[in-house]
Design goal:
9 helices, Arc Repressor Mutant, subunit A, mainly alpha
Length: 217
């Protein structure tokens, strides 16, 4: 039997969903502009007018559709968590890993995590800061981490005999937390080698493979 994957409770969007298609499109562009500024480390210093300009919108539309920068930031974070759950379901589906060795599974799994962190580093930095200050939001981040852990456990379940660690589920949980912790740290403090995404993915996968004592390639 596979390991169950925690389900996520649908959460009503903080910004709602405008009835008019034009307003929905404008809201999407405002959220995208906000995320672009986060990625460029310019969100805090950006005025509402700059966000609206990037989105091809107006200040009046920003206040009507969003409200303020804090609400926009929260909406960006909420959307990231929802997108991450969806990506987990698609990119880490069991069918995509059929026939792969446990080592290959871990390498692909860690590679996906590194790719997400590299692509959305600015957003993740802001998300980490927020989760450290808001218990309710931190709980949602933990729920995503739990889902990642359960997915990895499910993918490795057919290969239990090739996992050398004596406490397999605890080892998967702890090992994945080590990898996620290293990636979170990397969003704040870059070392020269961490700027090479392929090298970072390879070395973090090596850490997890060694810790789980996986047999065979």
């Amino acid at each position: 039997m596979g390991v169950p994957i925690p389900s996520r409770t649908p959460k009503k969007s903080l910004l709602g969903r405008p009835r008019q298609a034009r307003s929905r499109d404008a809201l999407e562009k405002l959220v995208a502009a906000g995320e672009e500024l986060l990625a460029a480390h310019e969100y805090e210093s950006a005025a509402v007018g700059e966000i609206a300009r990037r989105a091809g919108s107006s200040v009046g539309s920003f206040y009507r559709l969003v409200g303020d920068k804090d609400r926009l930031l929260r909406a960006i974070h909420d959307r990231f968590l929802e997108d991450s759950h969806a990506q987990l379901e698609s990119d880490l589906s069991p069918a995509r890993f059929a026939g792969k060795t446990p080592v290959a599974i871990v390498r692909a799994f860690v590679g996906l995590l590194v790719e997400i962190h590299a692509r959305r580093e600015g957003l993740l930095r802001a998300l980490i800061v927020r989760s450290s200050a808001e218990p309710e939001f931190r709980a949602r981040v933990h729920a995503l981490n739990d889902a990642l852990e359960s997915r990895l456990a499910a993918l490795l379940a057919p290969h239990r005999a090739r996992i050398g660690h004596p406490r397999q589920r605890e080892a998967i949980r702890f090992g994945l937390r080590v990898v996620l912790g290293a990636l979170n740290q990397n969003t704040f403090v870059h070392s020269p080698e961490s700027r090479d995404a392929s090298l970072l993915a390879r070395e973090l996968a090596r850490v997890l493979v060694s810790y789980l004592a996986l047999e065979g390639e």
